[in-house]
Structure formats: C-alpha cells, structure tokens
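re: that chain from earlier
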Amino acid sequence: MSTEKHHFSSSIQWPGGRNAIGQINTGVIQAAISVPATMSGPGEGTNPDEMLLGAASTCYTITLAALLERNQIEPLDFKVTSDGVVDVTNGIFNYESIQHHLYLKLKADATAHQMELAEKLAKKAESSCMISKALSGNVAVSADIHIQK
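^ sequence. v structure.
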C-alpha cells in the first residue's frame, strides 16, 4: 500500500473582535474575511460558511469530473450549484446541510447505459468526495441530479 500526504496551509491576519475584517491567504486564495452581513457582521469578503460550501462544491465537482473521465463519459455541459443552510438556535450556529444541484448534459448519442452510469457516478461522487466524508455525521450533504442528452 502506497501512502502519499499533501500539505496545505493558510494564514490569517485578524485585527480585532468579532466584527473585524481580516485577511486570509492560502497561497492561491487571498481575500478579506468577516462575519456575513446576514449574521450581523460587516459582510466584507468571504466567510467560513461560504468557504465550507465552496470546498464541498468544488470537491463534488472535481470528484465527479474524475469519475466521468475514468469511465469515458464526456459531458457536453456540466454545472453544479450548491446551497448551504446554517441553523441558529439560541445563538448557537450549526452548519446543517449542503445540497448540490448537478446539471449534466451528455452527447445526443449517449447510450442508456452511459446515462445510467453517469447517474450512478454522480451519486458516488457525493459520498466519496473527501470534503463530504469529512463532514459526514455533522452536515447532511446531498445531490439533486439532473442528467439529459
């Protein structure tokens, strides 16, 4: 069994209390960060809620793209939109759910087998993505799948 480890890092400059505006640097991502306006913050830049949703959405998308490629299914159009829900009960914030909405269009000559396989892979991508696995048991992650040709 081969083991390989990938390391990632981030740094944050934070100037003060809850409603301050900080700066995150992950190498590629360099952005302002703050509490969202919808949660009574300044709403500048991005925030942990958006970043978690973005991580889950990109992980699902890239995992599905890899699965489709390995199975020689070439989409004509491939779009994922995702929604996250954060519940606030008695002042306690809880990331409740993430739902991905997949819109996948295959070639007009796609076979019934390719259509079925694409749907199976879309379901598998949701459960095998490393971010979904990391959230498992804490955040409900699901996929609403739409495939056409």
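The domain at 1-46 is CATH 2.20.25 (N-terminal domain of TfIIb).
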